[in-house]
C-alpha cells in the first residue's frame, strides 16, 4: 500500500471566486484530500493579510493580495510577492510534490523553490489569453491583438518548458500549447466531474417561486460569467429570432460586467416575459436549475474544456453550443446536441428551434449526454494524477 502524499497546489483563482479553472482546481484538491492525501492550496486572498482556512479537508493558504485592474473580472486579485510565505510553507509542510495550475506569481515562486529543494513539479494549464483579450478594447485579429497575445503566451511557455510534467484538459489545449512553443510531452487529463452529484434527485419546488420560473414550460438554460467573451448577447439575439415560433423561458445564471447591457437587450428585444436572470446561485440551486431545464445553451468561443457544459451533460441535458476551441470534444454535433457557427445568431436560432420542437430528439440527446460524460468521471482524473505524482517522487 502506497504512502499518502503531501501535495502543494498553487493557483491564481480559487473559490469563492467563480471561474472554470478555480472550479477545476477545487475538484482536484478536494478529491485528493478525500483519498487521504494532505493537500495545501496557495492562492491570493481577499485582503492585505495572509489567512489560513480548512475547507473540505484542504488547507487553503490565502496570501495578502492586491486587486488586479483587469477588465473582465472584478474579483481577481494577485499576490505579487509570495516567495517568503511559500519558502516558510515549504519548511513547515515539506511537500512531496508541487502541482502548479498557472504561470503567475505564486506558481512561479513555488516552481523556483521546488527546484532548489529538488521536488518535482507538475503543471496543468487552464490558461488562454483570449478570454482576456476579448474584453480589451483591441480589434480582434488586429496586429496589436496578435502582439498582445504573443506577450501573454511568452511567460506561460517560459515556465512550462522547464517543469517536469505538463498536463492539459483537452486535445485542443494540447495542440494550442504545442503551437505556442511548449516542447515537452503533454498529457491530456480531463478536469473531471463528480457524476454522483448530478444524479436525478427530487427537485426543490421552492426554486420555481424564488426565481419566478414557470413549471411545465420548455426551459433553456445558460450558466456562465456575464462577460463579453461568454457571448450571452448572441443567445438573446438567437432566441429573439424564434420567440414567435415556440413557447419557452430562458434562464440566465451568473454575474458579470455585461449584465446591465444584457438586461437592456432583453428590454429592447421585448423578451422580458421570456428571460429570467438569477444572478449567482448556490451550488444546490444550480443543480436544481439543471434538473428543471430541457436544453443547455452556450455561445462562448474561448473554452479550454467547458465545465458548465460538463455539468449540463452530467445532468442529462442536450447542449447547443458554438463550434469553437475545445467544445466539439464534449458536444458531438447531432448526437448529444448541436454545434453552430461561432458568432452566428441565425445559425444558433435554427439549431435551438430544431431541438426545441422535437421532444423525442431532446430525450435521445439527453441520454447521449449522460453516456458521453462518463468519460470525464472525476475518479478517473484523480487516478491519473495520483499515478503521475507517485511516478515523480524525488
Summarize the structure.
The protein contains 14 helices and 16 strands. The chain has 394 residues and is α/β, with parallel strands linked by helices.
Distance between the termini: 18 Å
Q: What's the pLDDT, averaged over the residues? A: 92
What's the CATH topology label of the largest domain?
Rossmann fold
Sheet bearing the most strands, described? 8 strands, mixed
Helical fraction equals 25-40%
**General form:** globular
| Beta strand % | 15-25%
Total DSSP helices: 14
Second-tier CATH architecture of the largest domain: 3-Layer(aba) Sandwich
Instruction: Show unreliable segments.
Output: none
Structural class: alpha/beta
- Domains, number: 2
Give the radius of gyration. 21 Å
SSE pattern, N- to C-terminal: EHEEEEEHEHEHHEHEHEHEHEHEHEEHHH
What is the name of the CATH superfamily of the largest domain?
A: Glycogen Phosphorylase B
Total strands: 16
For the largest sheet, list the strands in their spatial order: 3-4-2-1-7-8-9-10
The first-level CATH class name of the largest domain = Alpha Beta
Amino acid at each position: 500500500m502506497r504512502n499518502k502524499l503531501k501535495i502543494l497546489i498553487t493557483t491564481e483563482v480559487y473559490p469563492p471566486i467563480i471561474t472554470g479553472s478555480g472550479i477545476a482546481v477545487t475538484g482536484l484538491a478536494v478529491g485528493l484530500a478525500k483519498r487521504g492525501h494532505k493537500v495545501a492550496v496557495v492562492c491570493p486572498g481577499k485582503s492585505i493579510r495572509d489567512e489560513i482556512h480548512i475547507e473540505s479537508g484542504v488547507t487553503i493558504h490565502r496570501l495578502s493580495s492586491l486587486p488586479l485592474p483587469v477588465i473582465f473580472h472584478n474579483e481577481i486579485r494577485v499576490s505579487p510577492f509570495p516567495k517568503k510565505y511559500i519558502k516558510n510553507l515549504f519548511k513547515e509542510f515539506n511537500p512531496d510534490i508541487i502541482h502548479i495550475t498557472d504561470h503567475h506569481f505564486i506558481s512561479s515562486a513555488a516552481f523556483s523553490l521546488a527546484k532548489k529543494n529538488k521536488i518535482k513539479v507538475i503543471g496543468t494549464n487552464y490558461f488562454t489569453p483570449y478570454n482576456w483579450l476579448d474584453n480589451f478594447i483591441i480589434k480582434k485579429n488586429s496586429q496589436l491583438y496578435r502582439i498582445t497575445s504573443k506577450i501573454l503566451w511568452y511567460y506561460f511557455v517560459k515556465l512550462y518548458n522547464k517543469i517536469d510534467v505538463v498536463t492539459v484538459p483537452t486535445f485542443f489545449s494540447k495542440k494550442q500549447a504545442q503551437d505556442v512553443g511548449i516542447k515537452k510531452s503533454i498529457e491530456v487529463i480531463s478536469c473531471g466531474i463528480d457524476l454522483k452529484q448530478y444524479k436525478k434527485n427530487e427537485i426543490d419546488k421552492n426554486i420555481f417561486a424564488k426565481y419566478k420560473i414557470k413549471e411545465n414550460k420548455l426551459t433553456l438554460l445558460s450558466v456562465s460569467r456575464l462577460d463579453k467573451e461568454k457571448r450571452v448577447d448572441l443567445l438573446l439575439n438567437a432566441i429573439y429570432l424564434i420567440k414567435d415560433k415556440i413557447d419557452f423561458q430562458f434562464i440566465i445564471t451568473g454575474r458579470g460586467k455585461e449584465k446591465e447591457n444584457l438586461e437592456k437587450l432583453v428590454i429592447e428585444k421585448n423578451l422580458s416575459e421570456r428571460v429570467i436572470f438569477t444572478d449567482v446561485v448556490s451550488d444546490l440551486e444550480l443543480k436544481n436549475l439543471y434538473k428543471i431545464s430541457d436544453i443547455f445553451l452556450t455561445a462562448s468561443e474561448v473554452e479550454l474544456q467547458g465545465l458548465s457544459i460538463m455539468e449540463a451533460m452530467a445532468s442529462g441535458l442536450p447542449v447547443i453550443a458554438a463550434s469553437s476551441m475545445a467544445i466539439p470534444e464534449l458536444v458531438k454535433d447531432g448526437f448529444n446536441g448541436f454545434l453552430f457557427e461561432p458568432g452566428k445568431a441565425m445559425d444558433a436560432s435554427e439549431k435551438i428551434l430544431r431541438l426545441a420542437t422535437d421532444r423525442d430528439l431532446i430525450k435521445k440527446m439527453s441520454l447521449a449526454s449522460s453516456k458521453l460524460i462518463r468519460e470525464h468521471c472525476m475518479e478517473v482524473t484523480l487516478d491519473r494524477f495520483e499515478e503521475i505524482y507517485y511516478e515523480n517522487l524525488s
